[in-house]
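User: Here's a protein and a ligand (zinc ion). What would the complex look like?
Assistant: Let me lay out the input and then the predicted complex.
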Amino acid sequence: MVEGEWEGVEDMKKKIIFEQLVENAIDFLSKAIDELKDHPKFSMINFHASLEIFIKARLMAEHWTLVVAKRQEPDWEKFLAGDFQSVSLDDAAFRLDKVVKSGLSKNEVEIFREVARHRNKMVHFFHEVHTEENNIKLRQEIARTQLIAWYFLHKLLTEKWKETFEPWSEKIIEIDCSLRKLHEFLKIIFENHKNKIEEYKKQGFIFANCPSCGFKSHKHQNVKKTIYDSECMVCGLNGESLQIECSGCDATVFFMDEGFSICLECGKKYEPEDLAEVLIDSGGAHIAAMDGDDTSYSANCSECDGYQTVVRTENDEHICASCFGIFDSLQVCQWCNEYNTGDMEYSYTFGCNFCEGSSGSHDDD
Ligand SMILES: [Zn+2]
Ligand SMILES: [Zn+2]
Ligand SMILES: [Zn+2]
Ligand SMILES: [Zn+2]
């Protein structure tokens, strides 16, 4: 066989393994959903398996060696035979960040660890509970964990890792519909919190539909264009939220932890660039420019590598519309002259996250 042909065959094998991984992940997920009512233990074990396989599939899409545990020498023949130890969740998170450059957020890692903890408890210490009350509690706890974990996993599959999992988008929609039905298990918690929610409303808080469990139990502050902590009183999903008035209609659009969202009234989709545009205090920018203070212009974010995603809002805050970082001040990169949230002290030589500075340009000589 000539070399080109050999590579073609190996690529084909990689593609097949990758596809099998994704199909398996989807299988385990549907099993998890079906089993929650009668076999909560297996539901949790299958959910965990699915989560792990989706993450490995994302690593595999980058390079197969990333799926192999770090204490092992990657061996393609052994990999094909399934004879290898695969990467742990923590190492996978590390590799996604450092190698794939598509890392997991703190919240994602936290909930995925919680899934792993739950799964271990089920495998090692599970004993059937015999009182009806404990049964209900157990299913609630599992439904809650799976709904939150799915909220994050679903976002990864349909936003950040969209290209990798595009061929399965139909199936992902199907799973999303059936998984959201798990919220039935949490209905009683919602009922129990109704009075408390009414009390909070009187104090001025507003409640939106929770993106994880679907109940109108997500507690928000009544403020726009500024970042605050929000929390769901039913499933406990929490994060940094921000609201704007939709530019397509006048409904309120909620964002959590990042600049992607959708207006539930008119369906307008928002990405960080759109959010930055809404957040920027155009009046303020104009006045500041006349005063010769041009810090109202967009800046680049050194936290998330967002290009021109940091804007000054009417509340006089510098907010990154992509990662929701808040910054006290901005500095100018001494090489490319663009505003940046990072420390620009040595930027003339070393540049910023969007330029290489003078040392980079000398390399070309
Ligand atoms: Zn919720
Ligand atoms: Zn709208
Ligand atoms: Zn950012
Ligand atoms: Zn620069």
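Summary: The chain has a mean pLDDT of 89.
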